[in-house]
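Reviewer comment 2.1 asked that we show a complete input and output for one of the modelled complexes. We chose the beta-D-fucopyranose case, as it is the one discussed in the main text.
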Amino acid sequence: MTEKQVVFPQGFIWGAATAAYQIEGAWNEDGRGESVWDRFAHTPGRVLYGQTGDVACDHYHRWREDVALMRDLGLQAYRFSISWPRLLPEGQGTVNQKGVDFYSRLVDALLEAGIQPFVTLFHWDLPQTLQDAGGWRNRATAEAFAEYAALAGRTLGDRVKYWCTLNEPQVVLGAGHEHAWHAPGLNDPASVPAVAHHMMLAHGWGASVLRCTAPGAEIGIALDIWPQEPASGSNADARLSQWRDCLANRRFLDVLFGRGYPVELEAYYRRLGYWPEGADDFVKAGDLQAIAVPLDFLGINHYSRSVVRDQEARDNLPVTIVAGEKTDMGWEVYPNGLYTVLTRIWREYRPRRIFITENGASYSDAPGPDGKVHDARRIAFLRHYFTAAQRALQDGVPLAGYFVWSLLDNFEWALGYTQRFGLIWVDYQTQQRILKDSALWYRQVIAENGL
Ligand code: FCB
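Response of the prediction step:
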């Protein structure tokens, strides 16, 4: 097949994604409240080199310029997140009108540039006030989220059609509550099942209030799906990879698609005493129905695969998986993983539509003597992943759009500014933006709707 033949269906949506804390800066301006990421990044030792999102890409002040760059690229959609504490400094109650105005102006500018806004409500920056009261360990946080979703729907729902409730709850669980790599920096495995449940409940309630406050909205959630591939053909590796798939993927997919929690997951937590019975059970009557509200689309963030090896199995078979090259993030380039994720999710869960809400690569290429950024590896990466997505489309997967992570180089969480995922280079000293070669290449892909 020649490259020219990689054509996408008419109406396929090409976009790029960002998240509030990673780009906005202005962490304490215009009435914004503190988030768990402010607190975490300001705590010594948490983020590499002590870096913070205090300024980041200064997008809060430079959003006009950034929208102009998006228009220049021909982006058809832009996925960004709202900073919850910018709208509700305490997580609930008093509304910060300046925060509402900021997103309202951004949405207007996007629409004027012909770019569809895709709004994510929670991309990890929980208001610190809610965390102080217990955060996602509390059911009340899901109630606060519903209030926040209603506010966002009331103020932006007349113009924003596409909504993601949560971004990657799995990372909030593992990195945030189990391993303390991310905010809120907890080492509390016992809290994990309740935290997961309350996030799912927030999703369900949030989606339901958006249905009322943003009529005609298309509502989904963004899950990060890493296929868990056994390292060999042994039974031990197969069993462990299935369990990992349950812990990382099925725990969300099953409950979102109306199947309840996987029985083995529930049994595991009950045995550990992390999931109480009776009146103390955090799953209340009606919760599972509330979570399983029909989704208009499923958002999939996809980067790589995990290779699963059962190190404890005595008579395991030799490893047969050969890992490919890695990006600067240490993540393997494995485009076929995107194909297997898309076809598997379609086969097993039948979502109405799927968007790839994030995919991209970290490569550190910097401006050369000619002032340009020749990021050939990112172009090759995207070319292979786009081709894998198109193969899934040909096999009947209802893939409706693709968001490259990320529009701009930005604050990569606990890794600070060391990882550059952007289509656009950012000089963090001067805030100068330079379109990388990949951005120019992507402009062509969008214009031709294919490769
Ligand atoms: C995803 C996050 C996103 C970004 C990319 C690299 O897990 O959703 O914010 O950090 O990884």
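The mean pLDDT is 97. We note this here for comparison with the apo prediction described in Section 3.2.
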